[in-house]
Design goal:
Mean pLDDT: 92
Protein name: Copper homeostasis membrane protein CopD
Structural class: mainly alpha
Shape: globular
Number of helices: 10
Largest sheet: none
Distance between the termini: 26 Å
Membrane topology: Multi-pass membrane protein
InterPro entries: CopC/D (IPR032694), CopD (IPR047689), Cu-R_CopD_dom (IPR008457)
Strand content: under 5%
Bound molecules: protoporphyrin IX containing FE
Low-confidence stretches: none
Number of strands: 0
Radius of gyration: 20 Å
Order of helices and strands: HHHHHHHHHH
Organism: Rhodopseudomonas palustris
Subcellular location: Cell membrane
Length: 310
């Protein structure tokens, strides 16, 4: 029961913090000009909900972690147990800071939502900075904390970059999906350049995938260490399931970039455009589904003993 609760709280927290970061980063690279009001309103709503879910799931993650450490869920109500986790563990200190940040993010997201559809570059940068802090600070807890010295610095930095790249790609799929759903027209409707957004998203995707693979290999080297540990441990097999899901996402993203988007651009304003846009929508939803599977694997991985040395 405690393990299941912890995995579920972790899953919701990864979904919420990656969505928040991806939605916050989106206007920084996706639009050549101003972001249309309809999209600002929708994106601010998404960020507010993700911020609220980040706070709620973060508190649940803390509760199940305390229960995991003490051995019983009832102990969470014991002030002494709570005080010792908050005072005497690195996790307690990091989580206190993260939950304070989560409250700040909810307040800033609510203020931005009230001001919709107006948004400024300053607002977008502030929200991106706070959302990046929420996501990257996860590297301060969990398996990235195993090593000391230089190996510790390498692991925490690689893990923080891994998390930010995961947020940019997975979280960015939400506003991209909305644009493909919300904007039947093309360039000029509501001032949005759908083809341009698709090309710029692909550009960001290259950087995110390269970062995920590079930092993922660092994580794997430090937590798995060998192919035999990868194939002969529970941790290793869950990581393999994650990599298979990642492979599926990569295949869909490559099909988008080298087949569907060029076909969409070539179709121009002809009716055929709608057919290619439909296929693109399906692929984006497919990428999101596989992305949730990746986050589910990660939610379990963090509760399993790493494969290194097994
Ligand atoms: C879509 C692609 C990917 C996404 C969204 C993703 C996401 C994540 C997330 C959210 C974490 C948790 C980090 C933390 O809480 O500290 C993580 C950890 C990890 N990732 Fe990835 N990742 C991706 C691709 C990869 C790849 C390609 C590799 C290997 C080459 C990899 C290997 C790992 C490892 C070993 C961990 C540590 C898990 C742990 O023990 O906590 N990931 N990943």
């Amino acid at each position: 029961m405690i393990d299941l609760g912890l995995v579920f709280a972790r899953f919701l927290h990864y979904v919420a913090t990656t969505t928040l970061a991806g939605a916050a980063f989106f206007p920084l690279y996706a639009h050549a000009g101003d972001e249309p009001g309809k999209l600002v309103r929708w994106r601010n709503g998404l960020m507010l909900w993700s911020a609220v879910l980040s706070l709620a799931s973060g508190l649940a993650w803390f509760v199940f972690s305390v229960a995991n450490m003490s051995g019983a869920l009832a102990d969470v109500a014991d002030p002494e147990v709570l005080a010792s986790v908050l005072r005497d563990t690195g996790f307690g200190a990091v989580w206190t800071a993260r939950m304070i940040l989560a409250v700040v993010v909810v307040v800033v997201a609510a203020a931005a939502h009230v001001q919709s559809p107006r948004s400024t570059t300053g607002q977008d940068l502030l929200m991106s900075f706070l959302a990046a802090g929420m996501l990257a600070s996860l590297a301060g807890a969990g398996h990235a904390q195993i090593e000391e010295g230089w190996a510790g610095v390498l692991h925490v930095s690689a893990d923080a970059a891994h998390l930010l790249a995961a947020g940019a790609w997975l979280g960015g799929l939400a506003p991209l999906g909305f644009i493909l759903l919300g904007y039947a027209g093309r360039t000029g409707q509501d001032g949005i350049d759908v083809d341009g957004v698709l090309m710029r998203f692909s550009g960001m995707g290259y950087a995110a995938v390269a970062t995920l693979v590079g930092t993922g290999l660092v994580n794997s080297w430090l937590l798995v260490g060998s192919v035999s540990s990868l194939l002969n441990s529970t941790y290793g097999l869950i990581l393999v399931a994650k990599l298979v899901s990642f492979g599926g996402m990569l295949a869909l993203a490559a099909a988008n970039r080298f087949w569907l988007v060029p076909a969409l651009v070539a179709a121009g304003r002809s009716g055929a455009g709608e057919v290619w846009r439909g296929k693109l929508r399906t692929h984006v939803i497919g990428e999101q589904g596989l992305g949730l599977l990746v986050l589910l694997c990660v939610s379990v991985l963090g509760t399993v003993r790493p494969a290194i040395g097994q």
